[in-house]
Protein 1
Amino acid sequence: MNMKNLKGEQAVSGIFDLFIMLASGVRKIFEYLKFLFVPKIVLTVGKISDMRTCGLKYKFQYYYNLDEVLAKEYPEGLIGQLIHQYIYKILNKEIKVDLEYISLIIMQQVLENFPELTPEDRLYYEKNIRTIFTNFNCWYEKHKQYVYTVNSDIVVKHNGVRLKMKCDCILVNRDNNFDYWVIDFATSKRNIISEMLPYDVNTNLQYFVLKTYFEKKKKKFKFSKFFLLYDNLTDFVEDWSMQEETRKIISEVKEKLRNKEYELHKGPLCGWCGYYDICPGWKTEREGDKQKGIEPVSPDTTLFRIARETPGRMALSYSKMSMYIQCPRRYRLCYIDRLGVKPQGFFSIGSTIHNTLELFYKIKPKKRKEPSIDELFRLYDQCWISAGYSSKQEEQEYYQNGKKWLTSYYEKFVKEQYLPAYMTEEYFELPIGKGNHVMIGYIDRVQNNPDGTFEILDYKTDPKVRTQEEVDKDLQLTIYYWAMRNKGIDIKRLGLIFIRFGEIIYTTRSQKDIDLLDDYVKNIGDKMWADGEKYISLKKEYETKGEKPPEEKIEEIFPSKINKYCGGCDYLKGCPKEQLIKTEYQDKLLFKVSETGEIIDKEIQQELTTTEQPVSPKAEKL
């Protein structure tokens, strides 16, 4: 090889090496820019919901990629997936709507996975599948020519994260009101009415993604949920306070993921978690504790889930049971018909205060006796909930009032007195009512005092301080006392802290109260179950006629009752006693009834003589 060719090859090689170096440099620059500007965290509605429910579950599922180990699933989950698959096929014109064929194919797959289904269960699921596709087909025939895209993903960037949403169906507009119509098909037993849909958290997350996407495209859109089982097509109407809260939720989840804060959170949904078998929070319930002489009470799943799936057993909480006692109609609409609830400013400030003090009493100060009031205010801002306020002005008024309450609380109960809590938001789930039912709940704070005694403290933001007699009769405190005794902790005293007024009213309970409570809850739980069965039978009776049960028949089973909380009831509109509440009883309610439905604080001028705050069975016996 001559020198000329060698030099030529060396030159080409040098140019190639230079090109490789430049390409490598460009790639590194691109990767650096990508690191700076492309969010690494990708969140879906499901991921956000999982992280908010339990950080440890999120860690198991998305961080460790562990397969869920719970053996049994619900048939509803599989049916929902299959229904969506066939809806997508229909929308894409891959198949025609054939109720007989689709129902047969879906049920065949269901029976392959759940061969133990009873004939009654099979008929139930077949009926639901037919109803869903009948309702879907009626809608589809009217709108099939406008289908734009099916089962598509929308991804947007917001505040350092990518938000991803799956759209079941997007239609092009037929008029000038909007450019696109986004439909989300819901196949579960849940049915949210139009008045409550703007306050559903997951729906707000979906809407937030869509709004971010279409605003960037400068296009108008409409978002609707179609609850197929009930033929309920509901348009989403934006509520500013819920969208503000949605932004906070996204930011909170982002920060927890970045800081790797995968906090365990026990609650009523744990029985349906695919990681129950390995969750450390349920180790004692699952395996027992030989050293403490504790036997396992729920080796395979939680008592709450067992109660939910066992005929004759009620899964109870204080709020659920008290709502039934105060007004069976409200209980039916909330817990059986599941129509949804509307956030209110009063409840939001209450939750904010509770969450703030929960975090505050977890602090273990090192250099000083108590955390500073600035730290308390920092937690207050961190925990602030914006949902439910009628305006920015109202939210600001509540915010300032909340700071005043906390300032007074700090001066009276924290300075020179601070002790970290022994437990905060302690979850319990225990058999009750002669073992027929299960009671769950969260205890605000359990304090271990310097003298070795324990006390329970519960926060109240009510606009009125209760009397000593009312606190002595309080059913919620009796339940808390019973729960802690079951956990092996003897409570010396219990107190309600009225945050607005800086007052604590103390009381005590005894074994006698526990014995009375057990009988009391059994009777109430049994009646709740029996009324629920009557209601189901009534609905089935009229379904065979193709009709809805008359309201007067339903009222016989779940009657409306006037009580001091009627002013803040989500279901006051349409209540048989609505006019009576708004006229004769309007000055006797804890909250003023407004025309727009929001709660207005006011002092009670006179106690109602009808159903009041549920009391401990001890009081009834006395």
Note: The two ends are 115 Å apart (CA to CA).
Protein 2
Amino acid sequence: MSFLQPLALLGLPLVALPILIHLVNQRRHRTVNWAAMMFLVSAKRMNRGMARLRHLLILLARMLAVAVLVLAVGRPLAGGWLSGVGMGKRDATLVLLDRSASMEARDLQTGESKRSTALRKLVPLLEQGGHGTHLVLVDSATGQAREVNSPSALLDLPTTQATATSADIPGMLESAVQYLEANNAGRADIWICSDLSRNDWDPDGGRWSALREEFATLEGVHHFLLSYADRPERNLSVRVENVRRQTRGGDAELTLDVMVWAAGGDAVAGRIPIEFEVNGVRSVVEVELDAQGASLQGHRIPIDARLAAGWGSVGLPRDANPLDNRFYFVFSEPAVRAATIVSDDARIAEAFRRALAIPTDPGWRHRVDVIPLSRVDEVDWEGTGLLIWQEPLPSGGVAEEIERFVGSGRVVLFFPPGRSGNGEIFSTRWGDWQRPGQEQAEVSWWRGDADLLAHVGSGDALPLNELRTYQYRRADGLGTALARLGSDRPLLTRVGSHHGGAYFCGTLPTAQFSSLERDGVVFYVMLQRALAEGCRSLAPASQRDADAAALADRGPWEPVAPTDDAPTLSGRGLHAGVYRSEEYWAAVNRSLAEDRSGPSAVAAVGGLFDGLPYRRIDAAVGDTDALASEIWRAFLVVMAAALLLEAALSLPGRKAERARFSDLAAGGGAGRTETW
């Protein structure tokens, strides 16, 4: 419970006023012995126990009435989740808003999304209960902390609107910590509005322990999670992969794979129309749905042979989440995918070269260069999409070049060197070589919803359970684990954003270290995905995940589609669509994890705040009832009930006093009387 007028609570000592009046009245009584009244006094003593109880109840009722009146003047706030919680005065309030695509799941009756519902519930609470001297917004799309003038402004700010991005909850909390430390904010409330998507929370990442330690050093910081974990029923999402432009004789066509997924596997069997659009030309194809959705493999769309590059989209009928009903794609003539391997070990370098040289599609052309460490200055940094580094971690100018390489959207895969080295890059260093036991040699967990080890298009998992590791080196840093050995030992970690990144794999592919090369499938798929991701920014036509840095590699990018609601300059890269920069085309969409990642377990999310002041409030999409409301009227009802009780208890006492005075007027003899 909290109060809009907390100064009124200074009147609570008035509760003692009935006691004070009672004591004053007792001093007004004077006793005179009168023998004739001794029989009346004896009768009175027989009823004294019940009278004392009645007087005590009357006194308590009067005290309750005064107390409730003071509380009502303080204008109390309360809600079901606020019962028994003293919110007190805060110096700052931080709102961490998840703007990811999954937060746009809507209630079809009210039209409210999870994101808008969260804001409409939170704004009245901040307006009524106060937000301190600072109201700060940290949105998932930018990850930056910005001060806001008033709670009502949260409803209309561009930085609170829907995007096609994913969220990074640990990164948002890091921004919150930095703001609190930089501004000496004192007592603060942190409100997190989220749908608990596993991809957004990354509960298995390595950043949570450091976050808990940082928050533990800040006194008076409370965390509140406004949770919208329910998944929309019968919601379908569409995705396009493997877009290729092909020529057959004098004709040209596009081939592509289309996947339709059902949230939670609750699709209704039947046929649904899928709309295709290529450079403004539309067509419709009906597909059959099963429990998991539907797919079209190798779907062909004829195009003009003179059209070397262009764009298209695939759409579904409108349902609970409009942001996952359309997927954009771009196409062009295939470009060369280039990879560079830096290693002095010819046998290990050859294993990498063989896995990268064979493309996943005959239409692609791959180029793989193997360079020893002594000739690292020969690396083609501008034309390479993937760098594999199997030497001691670099420093100086080479490290700076690799950081720029990753920052431009390319990918680097670090593998441990055979010899020792104490280098560090991306705040990560290699530990010593270790030989795991038999149980720890197996992969105990890996991330199958996204990234290099994600399930294949059919939903089948990669055979990582068959992988064996005989020697490995741990990558010590704050990266996100993608695979773990045995008892929580990271085997593959990632450092970086959704666009580009640095990976650290703790073992080598040859038989002395692991079964990666022998089993082949996992090794090949992992490298091919890293190559495809790293070459996206180099291809004339590239598919990109929505992110603040999605279009940062070159510019200016001009929006091509959709044309009816084109994003502003600052919003490009955050919203799904097609963009063009001279001869380069880019299609921006939500990430694969936004479609495939399910919600985190509530208990697992609660464990992330272990040892910190934390409370979760479960809410439903479309329910915009206030989190807290004024309940002073209920206090007045309680006061009226206390006064009625006091009157009812006082009535028998007054009748007894009237009878007593009648006896005194008519009686005589020995005894005593009380003079009033």
Note: Confidence is low (pLDDT under 50) at residues 80-87, 668-676.
Protein 3
Amino acid sequence: MGIGCRAVSAFSRSITTKSVGELTLSCPEAGNWKFDMTLEEKDSCEIVHISMNATVPSVPARFELSFECPQKDAHHLWASRSAIDRCRLKAEWMAWYGSALALSMPLYTFMNTNNKNSLTVACSESMRMVDAVMGLREEGAALSGVLGFFSQAEAPLSNYEVSIMFDSRERFWADVVNDASQWIANAAGFENCEVPDAAFAPLYSTWYQFHQNVSDKEIEAECRLASAMGMKTIILDDGWQTDDNNKGYSFCGDWEVSRNRFPDMAGHVRKVHEMGMRYMIWYSVPYVGEKSRAYEKFQGKYLAKGGQDWWVLDPRFPEVRDYLCEVYEKALKEWNIDGFKLDFIDEFYLRGTDSAITENYEGRDIKSLPQAVDVLMKEIRSRLQAIKPDILIEFRQEYTGPAIRQYGNMMRAADCPGDMQGNRMRTTTLRLTSGKAAVHSDMLEWNVAETPENAARAILSVLYTTIQYSVMLRDLPESHTKVIRHWLDFSQKHRTTLLHGKFRPYHPEACYPILEAESTDERIITAYQDGLVVKAGAPDKDIYIINASGEEGLVIDLQKKPRRCSAYNVFGEPVSIPVPRTGLSRVSVPKSGYVIIEY
């Protein structure tokens, strides 16, 4: 069905859907914009297509798509930012979720308490800001949803199209999210960046233990230990480009190596390569500090002030884009590094009005800021890949949506130092929404006074991702070193299952107390909370059950008595336990250890 209207000051039309009932498109000030809306049924889902056209290029009219439907078996809301909100279903007046090119993604799943989807809403717009309200209308206990478009300043357009998908199938919630994430990428026409196998290799990061206080000798010493443990890549984080240790960005922009810290960067990288490790370097893409030479060079080409004494570049200027690309090309060629950690691209956004409009976009060859960021990041990727086809490029939450996967191949969880639960929640979200990109944990750190079992729990919380370590290896007690060695070995032996198998996260509303991955040959289940019943599943392959609960033993539900059951402690050393029976059994799984069920 289709609907349209002539140019009027206000516009509102509704259509009836099976998923949410009445769906309303409204625009309070349509001006000369003409709208059309059609409904399509595809693969048991409903897709609404909206188009708007103007006779002459005009600032896009703000419009909304809204619905209200009964709250039936929908008790939680999962969103790609819900690692913070713990899957709460909020009242609509406090249930705002926004998404944009470098902010989250427009994907929302109402679900029940039994891991089943009730209603999933996904939007194809992954470049511009989409304001979303997804919550509960108090009057009548109804699910209320609103998607708002063009709330931020936007360059004149002649036409615009967007699609919104509604999936009300009763399926396992994570499968629905995974499919909806891929639908967004397909609908937007995104093509993912190539993902080399090296993107999945365990990694060492300098950030949490060194912060900005880095040097070549210190890094080389840590890399010798990291390489011996089985880590394959290092990320040199902030500090290499400045002698300052105050954690700010006032010296960003020139991106010249500190000769006091790294007198011979190329030679330093070569030494690390000889240890069998790849080398990546951190850059803050948009920032130019007031203490850099670049600060004066780019006067008049900033979006806004980003902090106390640093500014955010405007990528709509071609010379800004060329400069950034040349910076990374130069580093790649001169130092022979293997990749880049490109940080803070979420700072490319307009703060209020756009000064470019009053300046008639003078000097800017692209008027739309999201389009300029897209052009910049694609140019960076293509120019780097032309030099080194298997280049590694890392981004972090919240800029990890479908559009971002065009530019990079490593998606890291947002910073959560020492927070193993937060790390598990963030990485689980990324596993569901990152396609084939390598999902990385936030860097792991723990206190050297911790027990080996608790140190291992930090590792186990992110076992289903590529793990980044950021502990000072030289200060670790031998027991902690043994823990890292064992679980690094385990993660690599079971890498196919853990990183590429069928991934099943259970109960996001309870912070994912159980995670599971399955391949043709094995199933790996991890319990993160005590007092649970762990369902082992079908007795059709070897089953590994890991105890990350912090307590000794797990209650396991077995469909069949195993032929053999072997147990291992936190160090991977064998422990003798009896073979459990069919049904519920209290199994003596060691704390931060695991059992193997064989049929």
Note: DSSP finds 13 helices and 34 strands in the chain.
